[in-house]
Amino acid sequence: MTESIEIKPLERATGTVSAPPSKSYSNRAYTVAALAEGTTRLVRPLFSDDTRYMKQALAAFGVSVEETETSAMVHGCGGQLATPPEELFVGNAGTTMRFLTTFANLAGGEVRITGNERMQERPIQDLLDALHEMGVDARSAKGNGCPPVVLKGGGVPGGTLHLAGDKSSQYLTSLLLSAPYFQSDTTIKILGELTSKPYVDITLDIMQTFGVTVENESYQEFRVPAGQRYQARDYTIEGDASSASYFFAAAAVTGGEVTVDHLNPESAQGDIRFPRVLEMMGCAVHYGDGKITLS
Q1: What is the C-alpha to C-alpha distance for residues 3 and 215, in angstroms, rounded to an integer?
Q2: Which member of 80, 170, 189, 289 has the greatest number of CB atoms within 10 A?
């Protein structure tokens, strides 16, 4: 006998919900906190496969992370990374693989990073080429432009490099996050139009919050002066605006009222603008302190 499940339609979506922590902000924050000198307290970081693999990798670089249910204490190394004793495994965590591909070169010795079968099919050659342009020995172990990656370590000279704007913005983010610790000023020139600008804005926002200045020339050229250092601090991870959009849409189509908290109305996240789109379609939107209400 086949069991049946009755799903009753929702008449009106109402109530208050909390936006889950942003993965984009979480892994960027872990990266800069690891490079900072001193201890950073991250409040409401995302707990997920991507961040779990990031924390495991940071431990191999000599950066310890202590967790509670609602926060993480990251004991930064001031840019002095240990060389992991064995190959790092990051599953299918794309942000972790890409961010660490630049980060790992700050260690003194060779670092090898791999992932699961799917990760070993995901391209990363453009980032490796950008590192090559600065004189870094970084390669795909199989020679196919995909992980595993082998990084010689010993530091990054810096200088001028070029990056295609129509590829993953995570390549640019990877370079920017570690650039303050390169040996000289770094200039990244974008070839063509840069896509995914909101994700780059998230990167610039976090870098500035932790004390590093990036000169942004209309998203066509980014300059990071060497010698800057991230400053350890308390930092609250923003809620994920993309996840919040589903709750706002539910309120809009059912004529309900929903409040989503743990959101920054002035966030760099592109999807934080979604309530404004619904407002143009006739919804009422109220922006409060760390929350947005839509009816």
Answers
A1: 61
A2: 170
